[in-house]
Amino acid sequence: MEMTFRWFGETDPVSLANIRQIPGVTGIVSALYDAPVGEAWSRDGLDRLAQRVDDAGLRLSVIESVPVHEDIKLGRPTRDRLIENYIDSVREIGDAGIRVLCYNFMPVFDWTRTDLALRLEDGSTALAYDDDELKRIDLSKGTGDLPGWGAAYDARTLAALLDAYRAVNEERLWENLAYFLDAVVPVAESVGVRMAIHPDDPPWQIFGLPRIIANAAALERLVKIVDSPANGITFCTGSLGADPANDLPAMARRFSTAGRINFVHARNVKVTGPHQFHETPHPGKFGDVDMRKVLGALRDGGFDGPMRPDHGRMIWGEKGRPGYGLYDRALGATYLQGLWEGLGGGGGND
């Protein structure tokens, strides 16, 4: 397992120098954040990013992510050109020596929360989601400052997208995902890149939009679309763990044994009601994810890829990008490595 850490580039309040000082972290998860969605990535941009990371004494281990254009998800006639651009990006990523690409297939909205700073009993703040609060959000003004978007949409563009998705049910979205994977995965495999789809976050419909990567049955269907290790999963314990019906240790064991978990996001959540949760510190006792059992299943299944501590609280007075402060994620990284070592006797980068 390789312990990694997400970095949002030069504008990130958390510097590469900060990350370099977290014990055991050797890999960086990042992207070309200024690349327009749908355009092919340049090799020069990737090389500059990799060199910046290398100069800090780290290595660029994972691209998270190359966003999938909405026209691909909608199955519009423009998708073939956009998929070719995506394939060009995958080739450049492989040629640059980067082996894992995390992406998602969530319509319009990426990961979604209704509170970016829920105050917990200890005085820290955390990300939280409440379906009742979501229903009160007014989308007539566009996406505004809501988190998670690869692109911000004004009111007119957002309304047009939501209208277009009225013709796309879950089965149609599956068909469009299969069309995308049939084209992209063989190229990814040929250049040594492992695709790793991120589960829907939260793992249920929001704003009436279909969401399909939410449980074990969906992951089984996904890996059968293209039977290749290059068609794999980002196993996000927080996204999947928001639904109590998901048996995370069993899922981790099943898909790691099959060699289809290409990346792990380790995050803990506390479910507080139907379609309601908040994020917690990473150790199992603070939330509903039994991190020891999940990591044990991953290790038993032979997982040896990159893992990162996902979403942290804001603690010790830190200000910054919600969910992506330094301190709590650094605590998470050291906890996860200690847990991994205790489970198997090896270090975090064995």
Low-confidence stretches: none
Q: How many separate domains make up the residues? A: 1
**Molecular shape:** globular
So what's the oligomer here?
single chain
User: Can you list the strand order of the major beta sheet?
Assistant: 1-2-3-4-7-8-9-12
Into which percent range does the helicity of residues fall?
A: 25-40%
Q: What is the CATH topology? A: TIM Barrel
Task: Output mean pLDDT.
Answer: 94
Figure out the total of helices: 12
Question: What do you see in this structure?
Answer:
It is built from twelve helices and twelve strands. The model has no long low-confidence stretch (mean pLDDT 94). The chain is of the alpha/beta class. Helices cover 37% and strands 17% of the residues. The chain has one domain (2-344): Divalent-metal-dependent TIM barrel enzymes (TIM Barrel). α4 runs parallel beside α7 (170-190). The protein starts with a strand and ends in a 6-residue tail after the last helix. It has helices at residues 16-20, 43-55, 70-74, 79-95, 131-134, 155-164, 170-190, 216-225, 237-241, 248-257, 291-300, 327-344, and strands at residues 2-6, 27-30, 59-64, 100-103, 115-119, 125-130, 194-197, 231-236, 261-266, 268-273, 276-280, 306-309. Strands 1-2-3-4-7-8-9-12 form an eight-stranded parallel barrel, surrounded by five helices. It has a four-stranded antiparallel beta sheet with strand order 5-6-11-10.
Write a concise keyword list for the protein shown above.
four-stranded antiparallel β-sheet; TIM Barrel; 350 residues; 12 helices; alpha/beta; eight-stranded parallel β-barrel; single chain
